[in-house]
Amino acid sequence: MLNPLDPEKRKSEGSGHGSRSLIFPLSLSGSGAVAYIFLLPSLIFLTVFTLWPIISAIVTSFHARRGRNQVFVGLQNYERVFSDPLSQQVIQNTAAYVTAGLLLSVIGGLLLAILMNQGLRNIGFFRFPFLATIGLPMVSVASIWLFLYSPRVGLFNEILGSVGLPRSNWLSDPDLALSGLFVVYMWKQMGYFALFYLAALQSLPGDVLEAATLDGVTFWQKLRHIIWPLVSPTTYFVSTIAVLNSLQQVDHVFVLTQGGPNNASNLALFYVYEQGFKWFNTGVAAAMTVVLLAVLLTMAILQFVYLERRVHYE
Amino acid sequence: MSSKSMSFRLIVLLCSILLLIGGTSAQEPITLQFFYPVGVAGPLAQAIDSYVAEFNATHDHIQVEPIFTGGYAENMARATAAILSGQPPDVAILLGIDIYTLIQLEGIIPLDDYIASENGLDIDDFFEAFMANNIADDQVWSIPWQRSTPILYYNKDAFAEVGLDPETPPATWDELVEFGKQLVVSDGDNVTRWGVEVPTSFWIFANFAIQAGQHIGSLGDDPCAVYLDTPEAIEALAFLRRLQEEGVMPDGANAWGTAPADFIAGAAAMIYHSTGSLSTLLANSPFEVGTAFMPAGEAGYGANVGGGNYYIMKDIAPERQDAAWEFIRWMVRPEQIGQWGIDSGYVAPRNAAWEVDPLMSYAAEVPQASTARFQLEYAVKEFPATYGGQEIQVITTQAIEAVNTGEQSPADALAAAQERANDVLTQNGCELE
Q: How far, CA to CA in Å, does B13 sit from each of A13, A21, B1, B9, B63?
């Protein structure tokens, strides 16, 4: 009888103690212990700043604050996140913002990178303005745009007024406020995404593109059939970063609209801030956080499993 | 101002040197943390810091550390976080309407014993309207400090320019529309001067509802009362929309901070704003500034009081609470709170302040300073003095935004707001019918 679980048997088969402890680093002997010591600092930081907050958010999301006390309320906070008209609107706003952010980061980033990749003299001079915005803090960017958008003395309305077009109250118009935020975000971050594409474009095989040009292939055909497939690893990377980035946007909401008018530009993170730190509805804030976390995790797994497999062209 | 605060700093410096020379033999002073917000335009933080410096310079055993915490909402958020974490400040200026939230948090103490004590305070000297938000369960929980009502500011030069009498501001809603129309200046399709600008804010809206005949908040001691969907409130909000439809007021939502800037720049001939902005508007407007009661609606004049009070925190040692009381008593002395009224524009909240200098001679010189005081006759308790008031403020303002941007009708917006407010109240333990 061959029992694979029989310790005697396994011991006699013993394919080498050292190699096993590398595969099963749980044993504290030899290199496993050393590995743990080296990993310990990261482990501590991960636990304190990532794992513990996640657990604490999940626990808090089942509670509501009454005065100073937390009382257990079951799924009530999640009900609120999924049925309350305000949070519905916030989720819709966020979905629109993230989708637009994803599309424009990829398409705009790639086109901008192609422009920046032209073999012009002094191309650095043209690249600079697009890349300079990356380094600016969002709060200062938003403060500047606040003046540009200002309804009565702002630059945009001055320009519109001077050519006889009607002026807009950009950030106070429920149809325009969210787009107003989005333009600021894209103005700042487009160059960032273009930078990745620029690096990818510069590592493309020149001979393939040259051969295509000699064969009379148009620009759009080159873009569609050569460049787009070849930069797909970058597209994968950029789309992941773009989704994360646009979900994390809160600074400009704070400075420009405070989520208004009437929540037209309220985004998920600002909602969490308002619920959690303005009104101390910590349970609702935690529930929304957990939902966001679940969405992000699902996306990360999907992208990992699905996209990772097909993006690489050998 | 600045030379004054310089001299205070000098005094502080000298005192600290003296202390150093004298050694540390003296009793260790109590250091109080003092949170305060600034809710209106102007260099008010400097004023408060200079008063505190003077207090510190004249008190050996108490040193107050002033901590500027932003606007009212951030200030309350910081105070709440501090209370919940068990590390409260010792004394804080917080909104009068936050009283029930603070009681619910077990964050503050009632002050009746201090008021009645040997080192007490003549609480009856304070204006009744300014005490309305300070009393709950028949106890006094805070002492008025930066108190205000909104008033109507108008540009007298603009009135004269269009043939209106600069000494006759609009007295009724209809006159407000009528005068407003005359004051509008357009350049083609673009309006370069609006007739009136009413900030999109729960605090301003409440006045219109009172003028229409029904306050949106409780007049008594009821932390669960919100009346947003009454016919009077709907009428008030419809009037705000009418101002826009008649082309008198800019379309869309109007930011609280934009109105004073537009007024000074001549882009709005009249604005509704806190009397706390008076000093800034008087000092910076290149024209003569008129002040008036807010025009009357069907139910006559009406005003919603507002502003911040001194609170003493609960989770601190009794000797710190005593020290905090001494600080408050010093700050609300008639001369001191009168000076504050001059520096800021807030209504000095007690009779005695108006009967001594510096405020007495200032009021004689600057008649605009008394408008809000006389309007107090028509003033009532501030909205929303409820549980979850910070959230109900925002909900109410959002309903006004929805109407001012043409998104919803007044009735729909206010019905939705009432429902959301009820939800907040229920979450906070109110039992609504």
A: 83, 68, 18, 6, 14
